[in-house]
User: What shape does this take?
Amino acid sequence: MSNPQVELSIKDHGTITLELDRAKAPKSVENFLAYVKKGHYDNTVFHRVIPGFMVQGGGFEPGMAQKPTAGEIENEANNGLKNDTYTVAMARTSAPHSATAQFFINIANNGFLNHTAPSAQGWGYAVFGKVVGGTDVVDKIKAVKTGRKGFHDDVPLEDVIIEKATILSE
Amino acid sequence: MTGPDFAEIVAPAAWRTVDLLADLHLQADEPATFEAWRGYLETTPADAVFFLGDLFELWVGDDAADSDGFEAECAALLRRAAERRPLFFMHGNRDFLVGAAFAARCGMTLVDDPCVLVFQGERWLLSHGDQLCLDDTDYLDFRERVRSQRWRGDFLARPLMERRALGRSMRTQSEHRKHDPDARWADVDPAAAIVWLTHARARALVHGHTHRPAEHLLDAPGNLRRIVLSDWDAAAAPPRAQRLCLSAAGAQRVDVR
Assistant: This one.
Protein backbone atom coordinates (compact mmCIF):
# COMPACT_ATOMS: atom_id res chain seq x y z
CA MET A 1 0.00 0.00 0.00
CA SER A 2 1.75 3.12 -1.17
CA ASN A 3 1.08 6.64 0.01
CA PRO A 4 -1.76 8.57 -1.67
CA GLN A 5 -0.88 11.72 -3.55
CA VAL A 6 -3.12 14.76 -3.85
CA GLU A 7 -2.58 17.80 -6.02
CA LEU A 8 -3.80 21.27 -5.04
CA SER A 9 -4.12 23.73 -7.93
CA ILE A 10 -3.62 27.20 -6.55
CA LYS A 11 -5.03 29.97 -8.74
CA ASP A 12 -2.29 32.15 -10.28
CA HIS A 13 0.39 30.41 -8.21
CA GLY A 14 0.84 26.82 -9.38
CA THR A 15 0.32 23.35 -7.98
CA ILE A 16 1.24 21.79 -4.64
CA THR A 17 1.59 18.02 -4.47
CA LEU A 18 0.96 16.36 -1.13
CA GLU A 19 2.01 12.86 -0.21
CA LEU A 20 -0.13 11.45 2.56
CA ASP A 21 1.11 9.02 5.19
CA ARG A 22 -1.64 6.44 5.36
CA ALA A 23 0.34 4.13 7.64
CA LYS A 24 0.98 6.74 10.31
CA ALA A 25 -2.23 8.77 10.03
CA PRO A 26 -4.92 6.49 8.62
CA LYS A 27 -7.93 8.39 9.96
CA SER A 28 -6.62 11.80 8.95
CA VAL A 29 -5.72 10.56 5.49
CA GLU A 30 -9.07 8.87 4.96
CA ASN A 31 -10.82 12.01 6.18
CA PHE A 32 -8.78 14.27 3.90
CA LEU A 33 -9.33 12.06 0.85
CA ALA A 34 -13.08 12.04 1.50
CA TYR A 35 -13.15 15.83 1.43
CA VAL A 36 -11.06 15.85 -1.76
CA LYS A 37 -13.41 13.37 -3.44
CA LYS A 38 -16.54 15.33 -2.73
CA GLY A 39 -14.92 18.53 -3.97
CA HIS A 40 -14.93 20.22 -0.58
CA TYR A 41 -11.54 21.85 -1.06
CA ASP A 42 -12.42 23.17 -4.52
CA ASN A 43 -12.86 26.92 -4.31
CA THR A 44 -11.57 27.27 -0.76
CA VAL A 45 -8.85 29.69 0.28
CA PHE A 46 -5.71 29.70 2.36
CA HIS A 47 -7.30 32.06 4.86
CA ARG A 48 -4.63 32.16 7.55
CA VAL A 49 -1.06 32.85 6.47
CA ILE A 50 1.57 33.54 9.12
CA PRO A 51 5.14 33.92 7.84
CA GLY A 52 7.67 31.83 9.70
CA PHE A 53 4.89 29.66 11.08
CA MET A 54 2.32 28.07 8.77
CA VAL A 55 -0.29 28.56 6.03
CA GLN A 56 -3.79 27.25 6.75
CA GLY A 57 -6.75 26.62 4.50
CA GLY A 58 -9.47 24.30 3.31
CA GLY A 59 -12.31 25.77 5.33
CA PHE A 60 -13.56 28.96 3.74
CA GLU A 61 -14.71 30.10 0.31
CA PRO A 62 -13.41 33.34 -1.16
CA GLY A 63 -15.31 35.97 0.84
CA MET A 64 -14.83 33.94 4.04
CA ALA A 65 -18.06 31.97 3.98
CA GLN A 66 -17.33 28.79 5.90
CA LYS A 67 -18.06 25.55 4.06
CA PRO A 68 -20.00 22.90 5.99
CA THR A 69 -17.96 19.93 7.13
CA ALA A 70 -18.44 16.32 8.17
CA GLY A 71 -17.86 15.10 11.73
CA GLU A 72 -14.77 15.62 13.89
CA ILE A 73 -11.99 13.09 13.71
CA GLU A 74 -9.62 11.62 16.24
CA ASN A 75 -6.31 13.43 16.75
CA GLU A 76 -3.45 11.30 15.43
CA ALA A 77 -0.65 13.64 16.57
CA ASN A 78 0.84 10.84 18.66
CA ASN A 79 1.97 9.07 15.48
CA GLY A 80 5.56 10.22 15.79
CA LEU A 81 5.40 12.55 12.79
CA LYS A 82 6.71 16.02 13.56
CA ASN A 83 5.45 19.42 12.51
CA ASP A 84 8.54 20.05 10.42
CA THR A 85 8.83 22.41 7.46
CA TYR A 86 6.54 21.47 4.56
CA THR A 87 4.61 18.85 6.49
CA VAL A 88 0.83 19.06 6.37
CA ALA A 89 -1.26 18.75 9.51
CA MET A 90 -4.88 18.92 10.59
CA ALA A 91 -6.10 22.19 12.03
CA ARG A 92 -8.48 22.07 15.00
CA THR A 93 -9.84 24.19 17.81
CA SER A 94 -8.42 23.96 21.33
CA ALA A 95 -10.36 20.72 21.78
CA PRO A 96 -7.87 17.98 20.93
CA HIS A 97 -10.23 15.92 18.75
CA SER A 98 -12.00 18.65 16.84
CA ALA A 99 -10.35 18.49 13.42
CA THR A 100 -12.69 18.38 10.45
CA ALA A 101 -11.59 19.75 7.05
CA GLN A 102 -9.09 22.55 7.63
CA PHE A 103 -5.41 21.75 7.32
CA PHE A 104 -2.17 23.68 7.44
CA ILE A 105 1.28 23.43 5.90
CA ASN A 106 4.16 24.10 8.30
CA ILE A 107 6.69 26.54 6.95
CA ALA A 108 9.11 26.12 9.84
CA ASN A 109 10.03 23.33 12.20
CA ASN A 110 7.20 24.01 14.63
CA GLY A 111 8.29 21.73 17.44
CA PHE A 112 5.87 23.27 19.89
CA LEU A 113 2.99 21.85 17.82
CA ASN A 114 4.14 18.27 18.34
CA HIS A 115 2.35 15.85 20.59
CA THR A 116 3.85 15.69 24.08
CA ALA A 117 1.05 14.20 26.16
CA PRO A 118 -2.55 13.11 25.76
CA SER A 119 -3.79 16.18 27.63
CA ALA A 120 -5.57 19.29 26.46
CA GLN A 121 -2.28 21.16 26.56
CA GLY A 122 -0.04 18.47 25.15
CA TRP A 123 -2.04 16.82 22.36
CA GLY A 124 -0.49 18.76 19.52
CA TYR A 125 -1.47 18.84 15.86
CA ALA A 126 -1.65 15.71 13.71
CA VAL A 127 0.79 15.58 10.82
CA PHE A 128 -0.58 13.36 8.06
CA GLY A 129 1.60 14.09 5.07
CA LYS A 130 4.10 16.38 3.42
CA VAL A 131 4.63 18.56 0.39
CA VAL A 132 6.56 16.61 -2.24
CA GLY A 133 6.07 19.04 -5.11
CA GLY A 134 5.51 22.78 -5.33
CA THR A 135 7.36 23.93 -2.22
CA ASP A 136 8.05 27.06 -4.29
CA VAL A 137 4.30 27.63 -4.48
CA VAL A 138 4.05 27.26 -0.69
CA ASP A 139 6.86 29.81 -0.43
CA LYS A 140 4.90 32.22 -2.62
CA ILE A 141 1.78 31.79 -0.49
CA LYS A 142 3.61 32.46 2.75
CA ALA A 143 4.85 35.78 1.36
CA VAL A 144 1.49 37.31 0.45
CA LYS A 145 0.31 40.45 2.21
CA THR A 146 -2.20 39.75 4.95
CA GLY A 147 -4.55 41.72 7.16
CA ARG A 148 -7.68 41.54 9.21
CA LYS A 149 -10.96 40.49 7.58
CA GLY A 150 -13.93 40.56 9.95
CA PHE A 151 -13.04 38.41 12.95
CA HIS A 152 -10.06 36.81 11.23
CA ASP A 153 -6.44 37.92 11.45
CA ASP A 154 -3.64 37.03 9.04
CA VAL A 155 -5.98 36.78 6.03
CA PRO A 156 -4.38 37.25 2.59
CA LEU A 157 -5.59 40.56 1.19
CA GLU A 158 -5.78 38.96 -2.24
CA ASP A 159 -7.44 35.56 -2.08
CA VAL A 160 -5.17 32.53 -2.38
CA ILE A 161 -7.62 30.06 -3.90
CA ILE A 162 -7.45 26.29 -4.14
CA GLU A 163 -9.22 25.97 -7.47
CA LYS A 164 -9.18 22.20 -7.43
CA ALA A 165 -7.92 19.37 -5.27
CA THR A 166 -7.30 16.15 -7.19
CA ILE A 167 -6.28 12.66 -6.14
CA LEU A 168 -3.27 11.70 -8.25
CA SER A 169 -2.96 8.25 -6.78
CA GLU A 170 -4.73 6.50 -3.97
CA MET B 1 -10.51 29.77 16.62
CA THR B 2 -9.46 26.93 14.43
CA GLY B 3 -5.82 26.28 13.82
CA PRO B 4 -2.51 26.12 15.62
CA ASP B 5 -1.85 28.98 17.97
CA PHE B 6 -0.03 29.83 21.16
CA ALA B 7 -1.85 29.15 24.41
CA GLU B 8 -3.14 32.22 26.20
CA ILE B 9 -3.43 32.98 29.88
CA VAL B 10 -5.79 35.88 30.44
CA ALA B 11 -5.12 37.61 33.73
CA PRO B 12 -8.15 38.36 35.90
CA ALA B 13 -8.82 42.10 36.18
CA ALA B 14 -7.85 42.01 39.85
CA TRP B 15 -4.18 41.24 39.13
CA ARG B 16 -2.02 44.35 39.60
CA THR B 17 1.46 42.82 39.41
CA VAL B 18 2.83 39.53 38.10
CA ASP B 19 6.28 38.14 38.87
CA LEU B 20 8.30 36.23 36.30
CA LEU B 21 11.24 34.09 37.47
CA ALA B 22 13.44 31.50 35.78
CA ASP B 23 16.59 29.46 36.22
CA LEU B 24 16.64 29.13 39.99
CA HIS B 25 18.10 25.62 39.60
CA LEU B 26 16.96 24.71 43.09
CA GLN B 27 18.87 21.80 44.55
CA ALA B 28 19.80 20.46 47.97
CA ASP B 29 23.45 21.50 47.48
CA GLU B 30 22.56 25.18 47.11
CA PRO B 31 20.98 26.18 50.43
CA ALA B 32 21.54 29.90 49.99
CA THR B 33 19.46 30.04 46.82
CA PHE B 34 16.82 27.82 48.40
CA GLU B 35 16.56 30.21 51.35
CA ALA B 36 16.35 33.22 49.04
CA TRP B 37 13.54 31.50 47.20
CA ARG B 38 11.75 30.57 50.41
CA GLY B 39 11.93 34.18 51.56
CA TYR B 40 10.73 35.38 48.18
CA LEU B 41 7.68 33.11 48.21
CA GLU B 42 6.74 34.32 51.66
CA THR B 43 7.07 38.02 50.94
CA THR B 44 6.37 38.79 47.30
CA PRO B 45 3.43 41.13 46.84
CA ALA B 46 2.71 39.83 43.34
CA ASP B 47 -0.78 38.68 42.45
CA ALA B 48 0.61 35.78 40.44
CA VAL B 49 3.98 34.11 39.95
CA PHE B 50 5.23 32.45 36.78
CA PHE B 51 8.23 30.11 36.91
CA LEU B 52 9.58 30.13 33.36
CA GLY B 53 11.71 27.02 33.44
CA ASP B 54 14.54 25.44 35.41
CA LEU B 55 12.98 26.16 38.75
CA PHE B 56 14.63 22.88 39.66
CA GLU B 57 18.19 21.91 38.78
CA LEU B 58 17.04 18.40 38.09
CA TRP B 59 13.77 16.50 38.06
CA VAL B 60 13.69 12.76 37.57
CA GLY B 61 10.02 12.11 38.21
CA ASP B 62 7.22 13.23 40.47
CA ASP B 63 7.75 10.25 42.74
CA ALA B 64 10.97 11.92 43.89
CA ALA B 65 8.71 14.07 46.05
CA ASP B 66 6.83 11.13 47.55
CA SER B 67 9.24 10.52 50.38
CA ASP B 68 10.93 13.05 52.66
CA GLY B 69 13.64 14.98 50.96
CA PHE B 70 14.43 18.08 49.01
CA GLU B 71 11.64 17.69 46.46
CA ALA B 72 9.04 17.17 49.17
CA GLU B 73 10.31 20.25 50.98
CA CYS B 74 9.93 22.29 47.79
CA ALA B 75 6.45 20.90 47.31
CA ALA B 76 5.42 22.01 50.79
CA LEU B 77 6.75 25.54 50.21
CA LEU B 78 5.02 25.79 46.87
CA ARG B 79 1.77 24.52 48.25
CA ARG B 80 1.81 27.13 51.01
CA ALA B 81 2.68 29.86 48.53
CA ALA B 82 -0.07 28.73 46.15
CA GLU B 83 -2.60 29.29 48.90
CA ARG B 84 -1.78 32.99 48.79
CA ARG B 85 -1.54 33.56 45.03
CA PRO B 86 -1.71 31.50 41.83
CA LEU B 87 1.54 29.86 40.74
CA PHE B 88 2.28 28.92 37.13
CA PHE B 89 4.96 26.45 36.09
CA MET B 90 6.64 26.24 32.68
CA HIS B 91 9.11 23.43 32.00
CA GLY B 92 12.77 24.18 31.38
CA ASN B 93 15.51 22.02 29.97
CA ARG B 94 16.40 20.64 33.42
CA ASP B 95 12.98 20.15 34.95
CA PHE B 96 11.00 19.08 31.91
CA LEU B 97 9.87 15.91 33.69
CA VAL B 98 7.81 17.76 36.28
CA GLY B 99 4.40 16.22 35.80
CA ALA B 100 0.77 17.06 36.27
CA ALA B 101 0.72 15.11 39.53
CA PHE B 102 3.42 17.16 41.17
CA ALA B 103 1.98 20.42 39.86
CA ALA B 104 -1.43 19.52 41.28
CA ARG B 105 0.13 18.55 44.57
CA CYS B 106 1.77 21.98 44.81
CA GLY B 107 -1.28 23.82 43.63
CA MET B 108 0.57 25.04 40.52
CA THR B 109 -0.83 25.37 37.02
CA LEU B 110 1.31 23.98 34.19
CA VAL B 111 1.66 26.33 31.24
CA ASP B 112 2.84 25.73 27.68
CA ASP B 113 6.13 26.93 26.26
CA PRO B 114 5.54 29.36 24.64
CA CYS B 115 2.39 30.96 25.94
CA VAL B 116 0.94 34.45 25.92
CA LEU B 117 0.04 36.26 29.13
CA VAL B 118 -2.68 38.84 28.51
CA PHE B 119 -2.29 41.29 31.38
CA GLN B 120 -3.13 44.96 31.88
CA GLY B 121 -3.84 45.46 28.20
CA GLU B 122 -0.52 43.96 27.05
CA ARG B 123 0.34 40.63 25.52
CA TRP B 124 3.54 39.14 26.98
CA LEU B 125 5.08 36.19 25.18
CA LEU B 126 6.58 33.85 27.76
CA SER B 127 9.07 31.09 27.06
CA HIS B 128 11.94 29.28 28.73
CA GLY B 129 13.99 30.21 25.67
CA ASP B 130 15.78 26.97 24.84
CA GLN B 131 13.65 26.29 21.76
CA LEU B 132 14.74 29.56 20.20
CA CYS B 133 18.49 28.92 20.49
CA LEU B 134 18.52 27.55 16.96
CA ASP B 135 22.31 27.25 16.69
CA ASP B 136 22.42 24.87 19.62
CA THR B 137 21.66 21.96 17.32
CA ASP B 138 23.10 19.28 19.62
CA TYR B 139 20.85 20.43 22.41
CA LEU B 140 17.82 20.72 20.11
CA ASP B 141 18.36 17.15 18.93
CA PHE B 142 18.63 16.04 22.53
CA ARG B 143 15.52 18.01 23.42
CA GLU B 144 13.52 16.38 20.65
CA ARG B 145 14.56 12.97 21.92
CA VAL B 146 13.85 13.48 25.60
CA ARG B 147 10.56 15.32 25.08
CA SER B 148 9.06 12.36 23.24
CA GLN B 149 6.39 10.22 24.86
CA ARG B 150 8.51 7.16 24.29
CA TRP B 151 11.62 8.49 26.00
CA ARG B 152 9.58 9.82 28.87
CA GLY B 153 7.79 6.52 29.32
CA ASP B 154 11.02 4.51 29.19
CA PHE B 155 12.76 6.82 31.63
CA LEU B 156 9.97 7.04 34.17
CA ALA B 157 9.58 3.26 34.12
CA ARG B 158 13.04 2.87 35.65
CA PRO B 159 13.47 2.65 39.42
CA LEU B 160 13.84 6.03 41.12
CA MET B 161 17.39 5.36 42.27
CA GLU B 162 18.45 4.59 38.73
CA ARG B 163 16.76 7.75 37.47
CA ARG B 164 18.56 9.83 40.11
CA ALA B 165 21.89 8.39 39.01
CA LEU B 166 21.12 8.96 35.33
CA GLY B 167 19.98 12.47 36.11
CA ARG B 168 23.21 13.24 37.91
CA SER B 169 25.28 12.03 35.00
CA MET B 170 23.21 14.02 32.49
CA ARG B 171 23.78 17.07 34.65
CA THR B 172 27.52 16.48 34.72
CA GLN B 173 27.64 16.22 30.93
CA SER B 174 25.70 19.44 30.64
CA GLU B 175 28.05 21.19 33.05
CA HIS B 176 31.09 20.03 31.06
CA ARG B 177 29.61 21.44 27.87
CA LYS B 178 28.96 24.74 29.58
CA HIS B 179 32.54 25.12 30.78
CA ASP B 180 34.17 24.03 27.54
CA PRO B 181 36.14 27.06 26.37
CA ASP B 182 35.75 25.97 22.76
CA ALA B 183 31.99 25.71 22.86
CA ARG B 184 30.13 28.68 21.46
CA TRP B 185 27.09 29.33 23.52
CA ALA B 186 23.99 29.92 21.46
CA ASP B 187 21.72 32.85 22.15
CA VAL B 188 18.10 33.15 21.12
CA ASP B 189 17.84 33.55 17.35
CA PRO B 190 16.49 37.09 16.81
CA ALA B 191 14.60 36.25 13.60
CA ALA B 192 12.86 33.35 15.31
CA ALA B 193 11.97 35.58 18.25
CA ILE B 194 10.44 38.11 15.84
CA VAL B 195 8.37 35.39 14.15
CA TRP B 196 7.03 34.19 17.50
CA LEU B 197 6.27 37.74 18.66
CA THR B 198 4.48 38.58 15.43
CA HIS B 199 2.40 35.44 15.62
CA ALA B 200 1.63 36.04 19.28
CA ARG B 201 0.71 39.68 18.58
CA ALA B 202 2.94 40.50 21.53
CA ARG B 203 5.47 43.29 21.91
CA ALA B 204 7.77 41.61 24.39
CA LEU B 205 9.20 38.14 24.74
CA VAL B 206 10.34 37.25 28.25
CA HIS B 207 12.56 34.21 28.66
CA GLY B 208 15.39 32.67 30.66
CA HIS B 209 17.73 29.78 29.88
CA THR B 210 20.74 31.77 28.66
CA HIS B 211 21.48 33.32 32.07
CA ARG B 212 22.34 36.57 30.29
CA PRO B 213 19.91 39.13 31.70
CA ALA B 214 19.41 42.02 29.33
CA GLU B 215 16.78 43.76 27.27
CA HIS B 216 17.15 43.60 23.51
CA LEU B 217 15.32 45.78 21.03
CA LEU B 218 14.57 43.62 18.00
CA ASP B 219 15.08 44.72 14.43
CA ALA B 220 11.42 44.72 13.42
CA PRO B 221 8.60 47.24 13.30
CA GLY B 222 6.59 47.75 16.47
CA ASN B 223 9.29 48.17 19.12
CA LEU B 224 9.53 44.47 19.72
CA ARG B 225 11.66 43.56 22.71
CA ARG B 226 13.30 40.48 24.11
CA ILE B 227 13.74 40.56 27.89
CA VAL B 228 16.04 37.95 29.41
CA LEU B 229 15.62 36.96 33.04
CA SER B 230 18.49 36.59 35.45
CA ASP B 231 19.31 33.21 36.89
CA TRP B 232 19.52 32.77 40.67
CA ASP B 233 22.61 32.00 42.71
CA ALA B 234 22.44 33.46 46.17
CA ALA B 235 25.91 32.11 46.98
CA ALA B 236 27.56 34.01 44.15
CA ALA B 237 29.47 37.24 44.65
CA PRO B 238 27.48 39.36 44.14
CA PRO B 239 24.43 37.21 44.86
CA ARG B 240 21.85 36.86 42.10
CA ALA B 241 18.16 36.56 42.88
CA GLN B 242 15.81 38.64 40.83
CA ARG B 243 12.22 38.77 39.70
CA LEU B 244 10.79 40.59 36.72
CA CYS B 245 7.75 42.45 37.98
CA LEU B 246 5.06 43.15 35.37
CA SER B 247 2.50 45.86 35.97
CA ALA B 248 0.52 48.43 34.04
CA ALA B 249 3.74 50.46 33.95
CA GLY B 250 5.66 47.71 32.16
CA ALA B 251 8.41 45.32 33.28
CA GLN B 252 10.81 46.07 36.09
CA ARG B 253 13.66 44.00 37.51
CA VAL B 254 13.49 43.75 41.27
CA ASP B 255 16.29 42.17 43.26
CA VAL B 256 15.16 39.72 45.88
CA ARG B 257 16.84 40.29 49.24
